[in-house]
Amino acid sequence: MMEFLLKKKNFGVWLESSLDGMAITDIKGKILFSNPALEKLFGYAREELAELTVEDLMPERFRGRHREERAGYAEHPRSRPMGEGLDLFGLRKDGTEFPADISLILLEAEQGRFVLATVHDISRRKLAEKALANQTVRLRAILETAVDAIIVIDERGLIETFNPAAERMFGYTEAEVKGQSITLLMPSPYRDEHNAYIARYLRTGERRVIGIGREVLGLRRDGSTFPIELTVAETPLGNHRLFTGIIRDVTERRKAQEQQAALLEQLTEKNAELERFIYTASHDLKSPLITIQGFSGMLEQSATRGDFERMRGDIRRIRAAASRMQTLLEDLLELSRIGRVANPPEKVSMRALVHEAVELVRDRLSGRKLRTEISRGLPDAVGDPKRIFEVWLNLIENAVKFMGDQDEPLIEIGAEAREGEIVYFVRDNGIGIEPSYHTKIFGLFERLDPNTEGTGIGLAIVKRIVEVHGGSLWVDSEGQGLGCTFYFSLRDPA
Ligand code: ADP
Description:
With 494 residues, the protein is α+β, with helices and mostly antiparallel strands. The chain is 43% helix and 23% strand. Helix 12 (350-361) runs parallel beside helix 13 (385-401).
């Protein structure tokens, strides 16, 4: 019955060889002709197809709708794609389905109206679409969860993508910056450099990434800047290209690096100090040892001679040297402990500590009366009370010890507030210190007059304590005979 059609203009040849499945049906959908591609697509033999209607080739769920449409179609036949706006599926003989594009072409002939249905298997396209959608979802997930800011700009430097990390980092929302120039996020001079760069790039295609080998800064919405690390990738896209910038806020890293450098410097300094310390300590400990060695030899000789008087003297010298060594060792031990054993800081009443220390030394000036002037408004400090007491005691003891033959010994104690810290002082009118010794006296075992008692460790200990508390210690004196003032600063707890 279809022969008249198939003969027409090689129509039959074309149908037979088409890669799409094709069927000619009557207006009710009964299959009158099918091509090999259709057989292959649905898994039926030609004879089998001849027994079917198009409804047999579609999944159950589409049949109702198809029937309705066909009723309308019979009244107003026209060529059209089928199932507009729907995802259509073909139903194979084995019950499996495949996605398809189907179009219907109305064939009008003397013999009646027929429909040419073309079935195009779109499984591959669907798979590709799904893969693409998957890919997009994955890329989105990366964009959304990245800790680094990811910003995509076009060739003109206009922002296309601005991920949540970028929003957090720069303080703008994606909607606010989309279509804006990337220079919005750059402080000058990078901004001007960037503009020049883009202009040159557009003109010549020459690329030069900004900021290699030097610090690059980002500019937040609030106007503040922060150090960033920037990687730029270029993506060719047809005849234009995109630039993807991955930006990391390196504020924390910079801080850590600076801290590390400062620590390293401190450590190096401490090491050098320790070396000096060991050198002087061993040197100073040696001298009483030599005394002991010397006098034990003498003791032996005195014993041989039976000279008891000399023996007693020798023993006294040996004892004195041993006890000096003991004092030295104890002081050294004390010094080594300061940095380690720290009691938790607490509020310290400086007034109380000063009065206590003054009472301890008041009677040491035989015969002369010590006058003290202690400022009333001595501010409290925060720190380790025991250690801070040692500071006062050492300084006040020294003031008394180095009073010389001053007839009216006077010690003044006070404080003054400076920016963020309080500077306390102990001033005496004693023997004073030559300016050239003003640093030296804080070193270990440094004594200006070897004939006064002491180990030369006192001020080193005071210095350590003050430094452990975050302050510093220094001296001021016009010179010999002119008295001196020791100052130490502590953080202002207020
Ligand atoms: P010591 O424990 O032997 O007293 P310090 O370290 O306390 O040693 O002091 C070091 C040296 O600094 C003292 O030997 C002295 O020469 C000098 N010195 C310290 N305080 C005073 C002061 N108030 N007046 C003059 N010289 C001082």
